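Researcher: Next entry in the queue.
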Amino acid sequence: MRAGQLAAAWAGPGLAQSSGVQRVTLAVPGPGNLLFLPLALAPLIGADQAEGLSFDVRYVGGGPQAIRSMLDFNCDFAASGLSALALQKHNGRPVRCIVGMTRVPAYTLLVRNDLRAKVRQISDLRGRVVGVKGHVPGGRSTSQLFAEYLLTLAGVAPDQVNYVSAGQSYDSQHAALASGAVDAVIADEPFATRLATQQVAFVLADYHDIETTRRLMGGLFLNAVLGTREDLVAQRPQLVGQVVRTVQRSLAWIGGQTAEQMVEALAPAQVEERATLLTVLRRRKTIYSPDGRFVEEQLAAVQRFLYATEPAMKTQGFSLDSVIEARWAGRAS
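Model: Structure for this entry, 333 residues:
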Protein backbone atom coordinates (compact mmCIF):
# COMPACT_ATOMS: atom_id res chain seq x y z
CA MET A 1 0.00 0.00 0.00
CA ARG A 2 1.48 3.37 -1.05
CA ALA A 3 1.51 6.54 1.06
CA GLY A 4 -1.52 7.98 -0.74
CA GLN A 5 -3.50 4.80 -0.14
CA LEU A 6 -2.45 4.80 3.49
CA ALA A 7 -3.71 8.37 3.78
CA ALA A 8 -7.06 7.49 2.26
CA ALA A 9 -7.43 4.40 4.45
CA TRP A 10 -6.70 6.42 7.59
CA ALA A 11 -8.62 9.61 6.91
CA GLY A 12 -11.58 8.18 5.03
CA PRO A 13 -13.96 10.44 3.07
CA GLY A 14 -12.74 13.57 4.87
CA LEU A 15 -9.47 13.46 2.91
CA ALA A 16 -11.23 14.33 -0.32
CA GLN A 17 -12.66 17.56 1.09
CA SER A 18 -10.06 20.08 -0.05
CA SER A 19 -12.14 23.21 0.61
CA GLY A 20 -11.77 24.80 4.02
CA VAL A 21 -8.54 22.99 4.87
CA GLN A 22 -6.43 25.18 7.14
CA ARG A 23 -2.65 25.33 6.72
CA VAL A 24 -0.70 24.99 9.96
CA THR A 25 3.03 25.70 10.23
CA LEU A 26 5.23 23.67 12.56
CA ALA A 27 8.95 24.06 13.27
CA VAL A 28 10.37 20.57 13.79
CA PRO A 29 13.95 19.40 14.52
CA GLY A 30 15.19 17.34 11.61
CA PRO A 31 14.67 16.06 9.05
CA GLY A 32 14.53 12.35 9.72
CA ASN A 33 14.62 12.41 13.53
CA LEU A 34 12.81 9.42 15.04
CA LEU A 35 11.72 11.49 18.06
CA PHE A 36 9.47 13.64 15.90
CA LEU A 37 8.40 11.03 13.37
CA PRO A 38 4.67 11.33 14.33
CA LEU A 39 4.71 14.88 12.92
CA ALA A 40 6.43 13.84 9.68
CA LEU A 41 3.92 11.01 9.27
CA ALA A 42 0.80 13.08 9.91
CA PRO A 43 0.48 14.58 6.39
CA LEU A 44 1.57 11.31 4.75
CA ILE A 45 -1.19 9.26 6.35
CA GLY A 46 -3.86 11.96 6.18
CA ALA A 47 -4.06 12.53 9.94
CA ASP A 48 -3.98 16.31 9.44
CA GLN A 49 -6.57 16.29 6.63
CA ALA A 50 -8.92 14.27 8.85
CA GLU A 51 -8.95 17.27 11.21
CA GLY A 52 -9.37 19.82 8.42
CA LEU A 53 -5.71 20.84 8.52
CA SER A 54 -2.68 20.80 6.25
CA PHE A 55 0.58 20.43 8.16
CA ASP A 56 3.46 22.53 6.80
CA VAL A 57 6.48 20.99 8.54
CA ARG A 58 9.58 23.22 8.51
CA TYR A 59 12.78 21.58 9.66
CA VAL A 60 15.24 23.38 11.92
CA GLY A 61 18.48 22.54 13.71
CA GLY A 62 17.05 21.67 17.12
CA GLY A 63 14.32 22.19 19.69
CA PRO A 64 15.54 25.59 20.90
CA GLN A 65 15.60 26.85 17.32
CA ALA A 66 12.06 25.53 16.79
CA ILE A 67 10.85 27.32 19.92
CA ARG A 68 12.56 30.55 18.85
CA SER A 69 10.90 30.35 15.43
CA MET A 70 7.53 29.97 17.15
CA LEU A 71 8.14 32.85 19.55
CA ASP A 72 9.20 35.03 16.62
CA PHE A 73 5.82 34.26 14.96
CA ASN A 74 7.46 32.47 12.03
CA CYS A 75 5.29 29.46 12.84
CA ASP A 76 2.54 28.62 15.32
CA PHE A 77 3.73 25.31 16.76
CA ALA A 78 7.15 23.97 17.72
CA ALA A 79 8.43 20.46 18.41
CA SER A 80 11.11 20.11 21.06
CA GLY A 81 12.10 18.27 24.19
CA LEU A 82 9.79 18.98 27.11
CA SER A 83 12.78 19.97 29.24
CA ALA A 84 13.89 22.59 26.72
CA LEU A 85 10.34 23.99 26.52
CA ALA A 86 10.10 24.09 30.32
CA LEU A 87 13.41 25.95 30.53
CA GLN A 88 12.05 28.56 28.14
CA LYS A 89 8.95 28.90 30.34
CA HIS A 90 11.11 29.25 33.45
CA ASN A 91 12.98 32.07 31.71
CA GLY A 92 9.80 33.99 31.04
CA ARG A 93 8.82 32.86 27.55
CA PRO A 94 5.06 32.49 26.89
CA VAL A 95 5.03 28.82 25.89
CA ARG A 96 2.72 25.90 26.55
CA CYS A 97 3.11 22.16 25.94
CA ILE A 98 -0.01 20.68 24.34
CA VAL A 99 0.74 17.01 23.54
CA GLY A 100 3.43 14.40 24.19
CA MET A 101 4.93 12.00 21.66
CA THR A 102 7.52 9.80 23.39
CA ARG A 103 8.06 8.17 26.77
CA VAL A 104 11.83 7.62 26.88
CA PRO A 105 14.79 9.95 26.17
CA ALA A 106 15.42 8.20 22.80
CA TYR A 107 19.04 9.36 22.61
CA THR A 108 22.23 7.42 21.84
CA LEU A 109 25.60 8.53 23.17
CA LEU A 110 28.04 8.01 20.29
CA VAL A 111 31.81 8.39 20.41
CA ARG A 112 34.18 8.86 17.48
CA ASN A 113 35.47 5.52 16.30
CA ASP A 114 39.15 6.44 16.62
CA LEU A 115 38.64 7.02 20.37
CA ARG A 116 37.68 3.43 21.20
CA ALA A 117 40.84 2.85 23.22
CA LYS A 118 40.54 6.15 25.09
CA VAL A 119 36.84 6.47 25.86
CA ARG A 120 35.47 3.37 27.56
CA GLN A 121 33.01 4.99 29.98
CA ILE A 122 31.16 8.28 30.29
CA SER A 123 33.67 9.75 32.73
CA ASP A 124 36.34 9.45 30.01
CA LEU A 125 34.61 12.35 28.22
CA ARG A 126 36.06 14.78 30.76
CA GLY A 127 37.84 17.57 28.87
CA ARG A 128 36.41 16.53 25.53
CA VAL A 129 33.93 18.05 23.05
CA VAL A 130 30.34 16.79 23.01
CA GLY A 131 27.93 17.58 20.20
CA VAL A 132 24.39 18.57 21.17
CA LYS A 133 21.51 20.44 19.52
CA GLY A 134 22.78 23.87 20.51
CA HIS A 135 20.92 26.55 22.39
CA VAL A 136 19.30 29.94 21.99
CA PRO A 137 18.82 32.79 24.49
CA GLY A 138 16.49 31.54 27.18
CA GLY A 139 17.52 27.92 27.29
CA ARG A 140 19.63 24.94 26.35
CA SER A 141 18.47 21.97 24.31
CA THR A 142 17.18 18.84 26.02
CA SER A 143 20.11 16.94 24.48
CA GLN A 144 22.57 19.24 26.27
CA LEU A 145 20.67 18.97 29.53
CA PHE A 146 20.70 15.19 29.11
CA ALA A 147 24.46 15.17 28.42
CA GLU A 148 25.04 17.26 31.55
CA TYR A 149 22.88 14.85 33.56
CA LEU A 150 24.80 11.77 32.38
CA LEU A 151 28.17 13.40 32.97
CA THR A 152 27.20 14.56 36.46
CA LEU A 153 26.14 11.01 37.35
CA ALA A 154 29.58 9.88 36.12
CA GLY A 155 31.35 12.44 38.32
CA VAL A 156 32.10 14.96 35.56
CA ALA A 157 31.08 18.57 36.17
CA PRO A 158 29.20 20.21 33.27
CA ASP A 159 31.96 22.80 32.84
CA GLN A 160 34.55 20.04 32.37
CA VAL A 161 33.14 19.34 28.91
CA ASN A 162 32.85 21.64 25.90
CA TYR A 163 29.49 21.63 24.11
CA VAL A 164 29.06 22.51 20.44
CA SER A 165 26.12 22.25 18.07
CA ALA A 166 26.13 19.03 16.04
CA GLY A 167 22.89 19.83 14.24
CA GLN A 168 19.72 17.84 13.89
CA SER A 169 20.26 15.76 10.77
CA TYR A 170 22.28 12.75 9.69
CA ASP A 171 24.55 14.89 7.49
CA SER A 172 25.36 17.38 10.24
CA GLN A 173 26.00 14.73 12.90
CA HIS A 174 28.10 12.68 10.46
CA ALA A 175 30.15 15.74 9.54
CA ALA A 176 30.74 16.68 13.18
CA LEU A 177 32.06 13.21 14.02
CA ALA A 178 33.95 12.46 10.81
CA SER A 179 35.76 15.81 10.83
CA GLY A 180 36.81 15.48 14.47
CA ALA A 181 34.87 18.62 15.41
CA VAL A 182 33.32 16.60 18.25
CA ASP A 183 34.55 13.63 20.25
CA ALA A 184 31.05 12.42 21.07
CA VAL A 185 27.48 13.33 20.26
CA ILE A 186 24.06 12.90 21.81
CA ALA A 187 22.72 11.36 18.63
CA ASP A 188 19.26 10.65 17.31
CA GLU A 189 17.92 7.56 15.60
CA PRO A 190 18.04 6.42 12.87
CA PHE A 191 21.25 8.45 12.50
CA ALA A 192 23.00 6.71 15.41
CA THR A 193 22.53 3.23 13.97
CA ARG A 194 23.66 4.38 10.54
CA LEU A 195 26.80 6.10 11.94
CA ALA A 196 27.70 3.03 14.01
CA THR A 197 27.17 0.71 11.01
CA GLN A 198 29.47 2.92 8.95
CA GLN A 199 32.04 2.79 11.79
CA VAL A 200 32.13 6.56 12.00
CA ALA A 201 31.31 6.17 15.70
CA PHE A 202 30.54 3.53 18.31
CA VAL A 203 27.74 3.34 20.88
CA LEU A 204 28.86 4.18 24.40
CA ALA A 205 25.35 4.20 25.91
CA ASP A 206 21.78 3.89 24.65
CA TYR A 207 18.60 5.39 26.13
CA HIS A 208 15.68 3.95 24.14
CA ASP A 209 14.79 1.04 26.41
CA ILE A 210 11.90 1.40 28.86
CA GLU A 211 13.56 -0.41 31.77
CA THR A 212 16.86 1.43 31.24
CA THR A 213 14.94 4.70 31.37
CA ARG A 214 13.20 3.75 34.60
CA ARG A 215 16.52 2.85 36.23
CA LEU A 216 18.27 6.01 35.06
CA MET A 217 15.45 8.55 35.44
CA GLY A 218 13.34 6.98 38.19
CA GLY A 219 10.44 6.54 35.78
CA LEU A 220 9.45 6.87 32.16
CA PHE A 221 10.51 10.21 30.72
CA LEU A 222 8.52 12.47 28.41
CA ASN A 223 10.91 13.93 25.85
CA ALA A 224 9.43 14.85 22.45
CA VAL A 225 6.47 17.19 22.70
CA LEU A 226 4.62 19.78 20.65
CA GLY A 227 4.26 23.28 22.04
CA THR A 228 2.68 26.55 21.11
CA ARG A 229 2.42 30.14 22.34
CA GLU A 230 0.11 31.19 25.16
CA ASP A 231 -1.66 33.68 22.88
CA LEU A 232 -2.65 30.88 20.51
CA VAL A 233 -4.02 28.77 23.37
CA ALA A 234 -6.12 31.71 24.53
CA GLN A 235 -7.28 33.01 21.15
CA ARG A 236 -7.55 29.89 18.98
CA PRO A 237 -8.36 26.93 21.23
CA GLN A 238 -10.25 25.13 18.44
CA LEU A 239 -7.14 25.11 16.24
CA VAL A 240 -4.96 23.88 19.10
CA GLY A 241 -7.43 21.05 19.69
CA GLN A 242 -7.34 20.08 16.00
CA VAL A 243 -3.54 19.96 16.07
CA VAL A 244 -3.52 17.82 19.22
CA ARG A 245 -6.01 15.38 17.71
CA THR A 246 -3.88 15.20 14.56
CA VAL A 247 -0.86 14.15 16.61
CA GLN A 248 -2.99 11.63 18.51
CA ARG A 249 -4.22 10.17 15.21
CA SER A 250 -0.63 9.80 14.06
CA LEU A 251 0.40 8.10 17.32
CA ALA A 252 -2.57 5.71 17.09
CA TRP A 253 -1.62 4.89 13.50
CA ILE A 254 1.97 4.13 14.54
CA GLY A 255 0.68 1.81 17.26
CA GLY A 256 -1.31 -0.20 14.73
CA GLN A 257 1.31 -0.51 11.98
CA THR A 258 4.36 -2.67 11.40
CA ALA A 259 7.81 -1.19 10.87
CA GLU A 260 7.51 -2.13 7.21
CA GLN A 261 4.29 -0.16 6.82
CA MET A 262 5.80 2.86 8.53
CA VAL A 263 8.83 2.84 6.23
CA GLU A 264 6.57 2.47 3.21
CA ALA A 265 4.62 5.57 4.27
CA LEU A 266 7.81 7.58 4.88
CA ALA A 267 9.39 6.34 1.62
CA PRO A 268 13.06 7.29 2.20
CA ALA A 269 14.85 8.01 -1.08
CA GLN A 270 18.15 6.25 -0.33
CA VAL A 271 18.43 2.47 -0.07
CA GLU A 272 20.77 2.68 2.93
CA GLU A 273 18.50 5.16 4.69
CA ARG A 274 15.49 2.93 4.08
CA ALA A 275 17.26 -0.19 5.38
CA THR A 276 18.50 1.60 8.49
CA LEU A 277 15.08 3.06 9.25
CA LEU A 278 13.48 -0.37 8.95
CA THR A 279 16.06 -1.89 11.32
CA VAL A 280 15.58 0.89 13.85
CA LEU A 281 11.78 0.89 13.79
CA ARG A 282 11.68 -2.86 14.33
CA ARG A 283 13.49 -2.26 17.63
CA ARG A 284 12.33 1.20 18.65
CA LYS A 285 8.56 1.47 18.14
CA THR A 286 8.07 1.31 21.92
CA ILE A 287 9.51 4.82 22.33
CA TYR A 288 6.18 6.40 21.32
CA SER A 289 3.27 7.40 23.49
CA PRO A 290 0.14 5.46 22.50
CA ASP A 291 -2.17 8.46 22.83
CA GLY A 292 -0.26 11.70 23.55
CA ARG A 293 -1.57 12.02 27.11
CA PHE A 294 0.54 13.52 29.88
CA VAL A 295 1.42 10.65 32.23
CA GLU A 296 2.21 11.55 35.86
CA GLU A 297 5.16 9.12 36.06
CA GLN A 298 6.78 10.80 33.06
CA LEU A 299 6.13 14.33 34.29
CA ALA A 300 7.59 13.50 37.71
CA ALA A 301 10.76 12.16 36.06
CA VAL A 302 11.11 15.33 33.97
CA GLN A 303 10.58 17.50 37.08
CA ARG A 304 13.40 15.68 38.91
CA PHE A 305 15.60 15.91 35.82
CA LEU A 306 15.07 19.67 35.56
CA TYR A 307 15.86 20.21 39.23
CA ALA A 308 19.07 18.19 38.81
CA THR A 309 20.26 19.98 35.67
CA GLU A 310 18.98 23.50 36.41
CA PRO A 311 19.18 24.06 40.21
CA ALA A 312 17.59 27.52 39.96
CA MET A 313 14.34 25.81 38.97
CA LYS A 314 14.31 23.93 42.27
CA THR A 315 15.35 26.95 44.30
CA GLN A 316 12.60 29.07 42.75
CA GLY A 317 9.98 26.32 43.04
CA PHE A 318 9.34 25.93 39.32
CA SER A 319 6.52 23.46 38.62
CA LEU A 320 6.21 21.62 35.33
CA ASP A 321 2.46 22.15 35.58
CA SER A 322 3.05 25.79 34.58
CA VAL A 323 3.99 24.69 31.04
CA ILE A 324 1.58 21.75 30.60
CA GLU A 325 -1.73 22.48 28.87
CA ALA A 326 -3.57 19.15 29.11
CA ARG A 327 -7.14 20.17 28.26
CA TRP A 328 -6.99 18.46 24.83
CA ALA A 329 -4.53 15.58 25.23
CA GLY A 330 -5.54 14.73 28.79
CA ARG A 331 -3.56 13.43 31.77
CA ALA A 332 -3.12 9.90 33.08
CA SER A 333 -1.79 8.40 36.30
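Model: Residues 1-18 have pLDDT under 50 and may be disordered.
Researcher: Noted, moving on.
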